[in-house]
Each structure stands twice: as C-alpha cells, then as structure tokens.
Hints:
The structure is a homotetramer of 225-residue chains. By secondary structure, the first copy, chain A, is mainly α.
Amino acid sequence: MKSKEATTKRIVDAALSAFAEKGVHQVTVRAIAKRAGISTTRMYRFFPGKEELLVAVVADKLTEMTDGLREHLQGIVGTANKLRKCTWFILHFFESCPEFASLMFVANPLQIWGRPPRGGPAAEQARILAEIVQEGQLAGEVRPDINIKQLRDLYFGGLQRLTYLWLARGMPNKLTDAADGFTKLVFDGIKQPEGAVLKCPFLEWLEATKGPTAQPEVDHGVEVR
Amino acid sequence: MKSKEATTKRIVDAALSAFAEKGVHQVTVRAIAKRAGISTTRMYRFFPGKEELLVAVVADKLTEMTDGLREHLQGIVGTANKLRKCTWFILHFFESCPEFASLMFVANPLQIWGRPPRGGPAAEQARILAEIVQEGQLAGEVRPDINIKQLRDLYFGGLQRLTYLWLARGMPNKLTDAADGFTKLVFDGIKQPEGAVLKCPFLEWLEATKGPTAQPEVDHGVEVR
Amino acid sequence: MKSKEATTKRIVDAALSAFAEKGVHQVTVRAIAKRAGISTTRMYRFFPGKEELLVAVVADKLTEMTDGLREHLQGIVGTANKLRKCTWFILHFFESCPEFASLMFVANPLQIWGRPPRGGPAAEQARILAEIVQEGQLAGEVRPDINIKQLRDLYFGGLQRLTYLWLARGMPNKLTDAADGFTKLVFDGIKQPEGAVLKCPFLEWLEATKGPTAQPEVDHGVEVR
Amino acid sequence: MKSKEATTKRIVDAALSAFAEKGVHQVTVRAIAKRAGISTTRMYRFFPGKEELLVAVVADKLTEMTDGLREHLQGIVGTANKLRKCTWFILHFFESCPEFASLMFVANPLQIWGRPPRGGPAAEQARILAEIVQEGQLAGEVRPDINIKQLRDLYFGGLQRLTYLWLARGMPNKLTDAADGFTKLVFDGIKQPEGAVLKCPFLEWLEATKGPTAQPEVDHGVEVR
DNA sequence: TATGAATGAGTATTCATTCAT
DNA sequence: CATGAATGAATACTCATTCAT
C-alpha cells in the first residue's frame, strides 16, 4: 500500500501540474484524482476541497522554496552577495519548476488568496530580504534611510514581473540570466554611496595619503565577480 | 433614448464593478446586465461574450489611464520629476478606481491575457517609462549603463505589488503616499551620482560661498529630503 | 415600393431556401428576414409567426405543384400514360426544386403538420390520382377490385421515399430516371390483365392472323418496352 | 440496486415516450431524466448528449423490430405468405408501439439521420425484403424483371405512409387491418402471372376436362388463407 | 409603412461533493 | 481503506416576438 505521505505527495504533484497546465478553473477534481491515480472520493480524505488543495499545493512549494532559500544563503558574506544569491535562487526555483511559477503568476486567480497570510512562507521570504537589508544597514553597506517595506515591494514585484513575462513569452531563455543585472539595479539603489565621497577631490587627496580601501565587492556590489 | 455609446459605457462600468467585486468567474452575465439596467440579450448585442466584455473593460480603463499619464507628464522637466509624476499618476489612478486595480491584479486571472499584446496600452506605458529614462540618460541625469528593460520590470512590478498589497490589506491608507518613497528608491538606483560631489565637504563649503544652485528639480525632487 | 405580393413572394422564397438549407429549427426568423431584405418586424406583418410562415411556404409550393400536375395531365389518354406523366411530373418537380423536397421530407419535423388538412393541395393530389385510377377502372384498364386508398399510400409513399433517398444520397443522378420503372411497377399491380389473354396460344394465333391492334397508349405504355 | 442495464433501459424507454409525446425538440433533457427517475447528471453518464440518446432510442427499437421480423418469418413458405407476414409484422410493431412510430415518422426530424447508415437495422429490413423477393423469383412466383430496389421504395414508403396517416388521424382503427390489402396490392404487381394462362379460353377448356388445379395460394396470392 | 431597440423565457451541459457499499 | 454511483445547483447564450418611434 502507498503510505499516506506518498499519496499526499502524488496528489499535490498531480494538482500542481494540472493547475499549471489548464488553469485552476479549468481543472476538474476528477482529473486531478485521475492524474494522481486514486479515486475522487479518496482524494477528499486528504483534502477537504479543491480550494484547500490549491492552497496546499502552493504552500507546499512555497515552503520548499523558502527552505531552499535559507539554506542557500548560509555562509554568504556581504549584502550584495547575499542579495545576488537571493535573486538567483528565486529565479532558479521558478525556472526549474515553471508549473509552480505559472500557478503563482498566471493560472491562479489571486483572489483565492485574499489577503496574504501574515506568517506564511511568502512572509518568511519577505523577512529574509528584510534581514539581509538590515544587516547591510548595520554594516554600513546599505543606506540607513532605505524603507525596507518599499524595497520589498520593488524587489519581489520586480521578480514576479520578470518571471511572469518570461512565462508569457514562452520561456525563451534562461531566467537566471537576468539575476545579476536585476540585483545590481536594486543594490545600486540602496547601497551606501561611500565611494561617492571618494570622488570629493579633497577627500580623495586625503585618502591617497593613506592607502587603498579594502572590500572591493562591497563597494561595487553585484558587478564584482 | 439611451444612445449606443451611453449604453456601452453603462455596461462597461457595470462589468468593471461587478468583476472587481465578486471576481470574474463568480459574476454571471445576467448580473452584469442587471447592474447595467438592460436585459441579458441586449448586452450580447454590444459584446459577443463574457470574455470579450472583460477584455473591453480592461482595455477601456487602460487606455484612459495611458492617455491620462501622457497628459499629466506634459511640461514636466527633469527625470526625477517625470518619474515622480509617473509614479504618482499610476498610483493615483488605481486609488481613484480600486475596482480597476482589483480587476487587474486580483480578480483577473492573468491567463486571459495570455501573452500581453505588443502594441496595447500596457506596452504604451512601458514605452513612456523608457522615454523618460532615455531622456534622462541623454541629459546626464541617469546612468548610461541602466538596462531599461530590467528597470521596467522593477518599476512596474513594484507598482503592481504595491497596489496589490494595498488592496489586499483593505486600502488602509492613501496609496499615493507611497509615491515619493517609491520613486526615490528607484531613482536612487539609476541616477548619475554627480550629486555625490556635493557631499564632499570641500565642495560644499565652496558652494556655500557662492549661493544656491539653480536646480528647480532639486527643490521638489525626490533626491532631496 | 415593393408591392405586397412581391414582398410576400420574396419572404416565401427566402424562407424556403433558408429552411431547406439549415433545417427549420436552425433558421432564425431574423435570418429569413435578412435574406428577404426586410426587417424582422416587417415580416411579422406578413406572417404571424415562424410556424405560419413554414406552413405558407409549403402550401405555396404544394399548390404550384398541384396546379402544374393538373395542367400537365391535360390531354393525356390512357391510364398508364396518365400515371407515368403523374409520376414523372412529381419527381421532376422535386428534382427542379430540391429545397422544397428537402423541406418536405428531410428538414421539416412533420409534427408541425399535425394532421394533414383535408382539403389542401396534398389532398388534391390524392384526388387526382384517384380520378386517374377510377377512370382506368371504368375504361377496363384497371382492375375493379383495386382499393384506391391503399394504392394512394403505396404510390405517394413510394414517391416520397424515392425522393428522400435521392436527397439523402446527395442527388447523385436524375430523379426522373426512376419515373418509368416506378410507374410500371405500380401499374403492373393494378392493371386489368387483359394482355394475359394474349398469352393464350389460341388467341395469339388468332391475333397473328389479324395484324397489330390499334392501341397507341400500349405502344408507349410502361408495360411495353 | 439498479443494474447498469436496467437504468439504461429505463432511460431509453423514458426518452422514447417523451420524444414521441412532445416531439424531439420540445423535450428537455431534464424531463427525460425525471421520467426515468434519475438525475440529469447521471443520465449524461449513460448517454453523452441528447442527440446520441435519440439515436440510441431509435436504434434500439429498430433492432428489436428487425430481430422480431426475422423470427416471425421463420418457417413460412411461399412468397405471398412471407410478404403478408412481413407487412403484418411491421404494422403490428408500429401499432403496438405507437411512440416508436411517432418518433420515426412524425416527431423525428429526419435530418438527424442524415444519410441512412448502410449496415444498420433499417438496411437489414431492406435486405430481408430483397431476400423474400429474390427467393420468389427463383421459385417462379415473382416476375424476374422486378427491380428490387424500386419495389423496396414502394413497399417501405407505402408502409411508412400508411402508418403516418394512421397516426395523424389519431389511430382510429387497427393498423394491421390494412396489412392484407396492402400486401395483395404489392404482390399483384410483382407476381408471375401464370394464372393468366388459365384465362385463355382454350386452356380453360382444357383444364375443365381435367379437374381443378391445386395450390390455390400460389394462384391467387395473398387473398388466400 | 417600416424599423431598430429591447426582452423574457428557455436549456444543454458541467462539476464539486456526498454516500452506500 | 477505497470506490462507483449519484446529484443539485449553477450559467452562458439564443431567439421568437413586441413596441416605441
């Protein structure tokens, strides 16, 4: 017999691909059950209804995504590097599971979500970003006047749009190719312009008598390799 | 008698509010017709079907929005000012017609749009932004290495998310309140960092002995706080 | 202005072709009016409804058919000849106006007719056949024990089926080609078997000594080949 | 529990009577389901649509009819007898199930059938008639020059019309009453006129010296009992 | 006479969900 | 645990017909 967990996974997988393929409204519960290889009735033992199934599917993937994100960020030093990794991971995740991306941004009538849950995995991702930025501010790499909430909208909104258009255009290239440019654009907007001070002739002269500054990757952000 | 145009408008308005209120799928054609004060059958004389009606509704508002945007931008000088106006107008438009915003970002299964039409009003808005930025680059206000397409995703994606969350949270405050901060965040990321020179104490002192600079956009501009 | 009669005819013609083409149920009143080049409303001045229009269309053609049949039968002598002419004319009429045939036997849900009107043109045709047969009986050409009502069913039913199959098969050949054979089959069944006497060897010998009989209708009649 | 077959039968029966009663177009799917005592949805598990149901209903009855016809013909000797039985059975079948007759000839827009299927039960009946006639030709009871296809049209067309008028007139008498007369009419038209030789005075005289001939049923066909 | 505007009533078909076994 | 049987409620779209002008 198939264990409960295995069956649950089969259902979720089936639902994900079905939802992404046809669109949430066009998929019948029967079709999902058939894809999962079980009877309709049995599926109701696992999920109380279609909507709950949808929520579960997305939550499942989203959790996987958030967990992966946290893991990938471990050990990375420097705001710009963290941000770049973050961007890359998110785009990579969508790229490797376009069904999920499609479900999130295309097939899914967002209304189903209603107000996004405060403590869910999506909020968790927002928190991760906030942490990165705040740490950057403490480290003097990010300007202290950056409004984190606004940045969040900009960042996630931009990623979402990037992914959506990539899908809409038929996934023509590697989505991750956009990661560096995107990150640089964002980081340029928030980084501490200390380098700017260097452009002051007076200070430059002052610096010149001291020696070069360290941490090039901090100074120039994402464009550094 | 009701002129054809008036009736069309009544239908479109009714459809817009109905779609936004209940969600596209939950609204029956009958309900829209009833809201518009006409019979179902008659409505089919104006629009061949529900989907076409939805498309018409959005296209209608989107065109209105784009036209308004172009008009409001007339006579404005300076990239930052233009950008700020652009942001403000878009947020203002959504704020003054939350039904439309809802339809665009919440109620509307994006799938209907499929690949966004190349020449439609949405593309027009992207073009407007590109023009602003390019002019800024020519004027030396915007860094020449800015990738406009990426900026576009960031900008519109951010605005979309901003609006979406504002709706999802129940329209708690004035959406336009976020305009300045949002614009600043974006502009900071793309502006030519000449102003940095002003931060050099030596130059600042130099300036102070001369008098105020003639930079009207600086007075109201986002970069000044 | 178009005279009332002309307009009526235009409507009837339009209805006939439309009914035959799409089937009575698939044709909208609007479509008929458009075909006739008048407004729907105006059409209702001429016919109180779709059903009445259908009845009128068929009655019109049927009358034309019956009139033509009577005319064509004039001056013809001999039961077999009359019968042959009758068959030929009916098949010819259907052949030259397949729309009508289609309407009668295929497109038209017969239920509309309900009980066929006693005195209508259809009944008139039955009467014509009865006259032919009765005259034949008086003339000794047709057996006196023939039940005319049964013959009528056989004759018209056969013609109807002949025409129906011709239509269903896509009007492959000339429908009138079947006229002679059909008539012969019927006439053989009802004729007074006087010719049988000729098969008596004694009488044949008797005849042979006399010369040919003067029976023109026998020469061209169906029973002779 | 209701077996699948039983439910199917209930549906078909309900559909038959409903179609016949109101006419195919006037009957709603719901009404049929209600008559059958099941839900509309369930009915769609048995038949994919209204049209398929109609086809099934007719095919069902037609098969029953054809099977019965073959069975009833077994063991009958003599073309006239077979023909009489055939006529009687067909009329009897319609008489005992006027709903079916009504559906076939009245309520049913023939268009649904389109071109009658080559191998279906209707074609089978035509084949049965052809066999009877051909055997009659081999046995010398039927004239060899009879065109079987034409005869078929005459025969079935006549029966159809007979039944149609019987229905249209409100089923006033026994339909089978017409069977003998109808058969005789047809058979008279196709039988081998050997008896004609007996009408030759010479042969009659010859016969008279011998005694009466046997096999009266061959001589006089259907009127013999 | 002539018509465009306007409509009410009608229907096949689907699907999430429940229940008896 | 597992399922086939069964359903009620829901909806886009059509069309014959009327009426105000």
